[in-house]
Amino acid sequence: MLAPGYKEKVLFWKKRIDSVVMKNCKFIPKLFLCFVFLSLANPVGSYAYHPSNSNSYKYDRTVVGDDSTGLGIMLGAPTGLTLKHWFSDSNALDFGLAYAFADYFALIGDYLWHFRSAFGGKNGHHLVPYLGIGGALFFNTYNGAYVNQGLFQQNWGSSVAFAVRIPLGMEYLINKPPLGIFAELVPGLGVVPATFGLFQGDIGARFYF
């Protein structure tokens, strides 16, 4: 049995946290569009000259890439930890452990394709667009203490949900120090326990090693 005032306290802190998260989430689409605009307006040079062959040019890659692993945080919807492993210069797996207060805990996994030459790069700095396909497994932590638009407030009668994700994002890769700063928008479709729409977005950073 819940202690007196418990529901009111949960509702109070839920509203506080939701207001902060939603306020920050409003900037994610704008930040994403700014990344695209700045890259198109001021490309940084996509290829490097090879003196051994006057007609030879080679893409100037950063060290963040093939066989690099990055660990960091993501902020938005949802918020949590992110782990990304590159197994080639254009392909990577991205994993996440995330939490939405008093709603769900999520395990996320995506397969990503990157377009490293889209905007070019020099001096170990690259703005890389990517897209992917993946899934998210949600575990119900909703306790019924408030009324809001949460994932598990649909009266499904289920403790688990699964959705297909299609992440669309940009990552700014830096050679020294080996960092990746990213923003992404993630539409999706829930398939378990019912069909539902999903739209998420986050920003974050990873340190690569």
Tell me what the structure shows.
The protein contains 2 helices and 12 strands. With 209 residues, it is an alpha+beta fold. Strands 3, 4, 5, 6, 7, 8, 9, 10, 11 and 12 form a 10-stranded antiparallel beta sheet that branches. It has a two-stranded antiparallel sheet with strand order 1-2. A hairpin with a 3-residue loop joins strand 11 (179-192) and strand 12. The termini are far apart. The model is unreliable at 35-62 (pLDDT under 50).
Would you summarize the structure shown here?
Helices cover 17% and strands 49% of the residues. The chain is α+β, with helices and mostly antiparallel strands and 209 residues long. Strands 3, 4, 5, 6, 7, 8, 9, 10, 11 and 12 form a 10-stranded antiparallel β-sheet that branches.
What descriptors fit this protein?
209 residues; alpha+beta; Porin; ten-stranded antiparallel sheet; two-stranded antiparallel ribbon; 2 helices
- Report low-confidence residues grouped into runs of 5 or more: 35-62
Q: Which oligomeric state applies?
A: single chain
Which band does the percent of strand residues land in?
Answer: over 45%
Q: How many DSSP-defined strands? A: 12
Largest sheet: 10 strands, antiparallel
Per CATH, the class reads Mainly Beta
Under CATH, the topology can be stated as Porin
Helix content: 10-25%
- Output the helix-strand order: HHEEEEEEEEEEEE
Instruction: Give the overall form.
Output: elongated
Distance between the termini: 48 Å
What CATH architecture would you give? Beta Barrel
What is the number of independent domains? Answer: 1
Radius of gyration: 20 Å
Helix count from the secondary structure assignment: 2
- What does the average pLDDT come to? 76
- Based on helices, strands and strand pairing, what is the structural class? alpha+beta
